[in-house]
Amino acid sequence: MSSTTEKTINGKRFISLKYKFLVSQLVIFSISLISFLYYTIDLYLGDKTAYIYENSVSHIESQSNFIEKFLSSELNNSKLLFNTINLYNQKSDKIEIVEKFLTTNDIFLDLVFFKLNPETVQFEKKFSYMNPKILRRYKGNRKILRRHGLLFRELHDYYKSGQDIIFRIINTDRVVPHLYVAIKSKKKKGVYVFRYLIENMASSIFQSSSFTDFITDRSGKVLIHSSPEDVNQEFYDVYSKFFDDIKNAKNNSGVLTIDKATKGEFLVSYKINNVFGIITFSEISKTKAFEFTKLIIFKTIIFGILIGLIILIISLIFTQTITNPLNKLMRRTETMGLGDFESTVTVRSGDEIQLLADSFNFMTRKINQILVEIQDKGQMESELQTAKIVQNSLFPPDSLERDPYHLFGFYDSASECGGDWWGYKESRGKLYLFIGDATGHGVPAALVTASASSCCQTILEYIEYFDGQYARPSDILKLLNSIVLLTGGQKILMTFFVAVYDTETNTIEYSNASHNFPIIYKYSAENPTKKSIQALGKALGRRLGDKPDSEYTNEVIEIADKDVLLLYTDGPVEAVNKENIIWGERKFNKSFFSRAKKDPEMIIKGILEDGYAYFDGVPPEDDVILVATKFKIDGS
Amino acid sequence: MATITQKSIEIDVVVCDGGNEFKLKGEINEDLLIEELIYHKSDLIKVNFKEVVMINSCGVSEWIKFVEAVSNIGSKIQYFNCPQIIVQQVNMVTGFVPGNGSIETFYAPYFCDDCENEDKILLKSSDLKGRTAPELKCTKCGELSEIDAMEDIYLNFIPE
Ligand SMILES: [Zn+2]
After folding, report:
1. What are phi and psi of A325, to 5 degrees?
2. Which of A25, A547, B65, B106 has its CA 20 to 30 A from that of B47?
């Protein structure tokens, strides 16, 4: 079961890095999007509100300025016309003046002079002039022909008052919208009434699409507006509070918010003109003003979701580049857990994961190498152990006690597998003694030694089997030479010494293949000295395995009772102490002859004691072989 | 003049009267590469063993290969200043001195029984009469000092 298919790790839910990364990306993105919207929209809304506010203020400013200018201009025109016409009494003069005036003013509708009849106390029309162009244009329109009917009573009040001029914008169902200017003439005891068409004024000033503009009188009655359908009972209901508010307002201008239940909130900017007795105001729907903002928010959210999706896809692709190599590595660790130390994992992501994969491969390679080495080493060690066991079997028992001789041998290998060997064999009243030392150490040397020792064995068995002749030491060496030559291939040589003790003749015949010379203690009753020992330094030949044609000779020495023959390898003699000074021949010889009267085991153990005391803990680098043979000859 | 530097040994090759002298310094062991030595062969090769501190069985093998190679092509070999370890090999190992080779000078260990002083005395083979070491006086106390080895064995290489 691989952990990828499991839903838990050690009891905790398994969540892929991929999803963790995705979630973190989305959370980060959402937070940024929301905070972006929150701050920018807040800013934008604030800005937009201020903008709309300022815009509506400046709008009403310009509207009212325009209207005031228009009205002032027509008022001044009226005054000018009044002043001129008031000077003349002839009707023709008056007509001439008015016609002249018409050339500069195309909205002038008509002029009427009402004279007060003191007897009837009624105003009587004495002179009137109507703009013929307008008359032609409005031909048949009764509204244009209607005069001042409703205003006569007002005219009375005005005439009685101290006011010189009255000024009205008239816009009722009965008449065309117009400007009404009445100027009192004390000289002629009457009132001049001038009228100007204002239809075109409304259309020329109310051009804004976002604002709805109104001009009302002080009471709130709508005189001119840009959108007639808006002026109904609902309008007056809504605006009654507005008019109350601005009546009490200190300033002549301002901005207020009104709530039209069905249409939402409206921003209303206004300006009061006391000269003309009018209120100019514009309304704009807040909802409408912020409609665009809502659109922006909506579009931002849609765009945000789109970007979110793109991020999702990109992160998915991106995290794949992380999780895929990781999964690869994970699968590799699983196969490694199953014992595969050889496969490699290939990651080409060019990042830390590739480095991880590379070092992972390096690690598995190393582990594999170490495993192989451990295996090899284990094999080698067991091989060495086997070789040692085999080799140990080649050594004879260390002690041999017979009537004519008493022998004791000691062997200690410096390495797992030594190249030294010693042995003996009794055959037909003869004692064969062997000692040899192969060059080098370890398995190759041990193998050569093994073949040499088995060769010795074979020679003697052969002689025994065929009831044969005596094998002379030189013949044995010659045979051994060819064996060592064969197994050692001239690379591993052996020094070798063969001695044969004949119990009948009490002689030793020996032959030496460059082995260090054995020494013999010649017994005398006196205390042994260095003069009591001799070396068997003759019958020297080449080392075994050196040349195929090596020749060996024999040498015979006499043996007397209690003589002691010592065979040894140079290991102990060449071994050093802590000062790196070798034990040396003199000390070694002395160690031997000083106890030569003891039995062989005591001699060997004594030499070892002296040697190890001298070495003082430094182990000999070479193998150590010591073999002492003491001869006992009856009757002498 | 050349210096052969190997793992365990350094050999100075200097021109001498009649050939080259090899001055050995270090250990003669399995690391000895004889090819470099053979390269410096001459009609007469004088080998100076004075500073050889150790020789093992593998080194003996290599050395024998060297002396056999050069003597086979007619080089005459003379050993000088042989320390005790070399003399032992000369005595023990057949072939260490090739047939046409000779030991000219060697060290012999001398031991004074009176003051236990050890001396290494350089002897000239041609001065000896048979295998008998000369009697010398101890360099420390002036008493008689004897060769510190089995005389006939140590001088085995001297013709009888
Ligand atoms: Zn002395």
Report:
1. -60, -35
2. A547
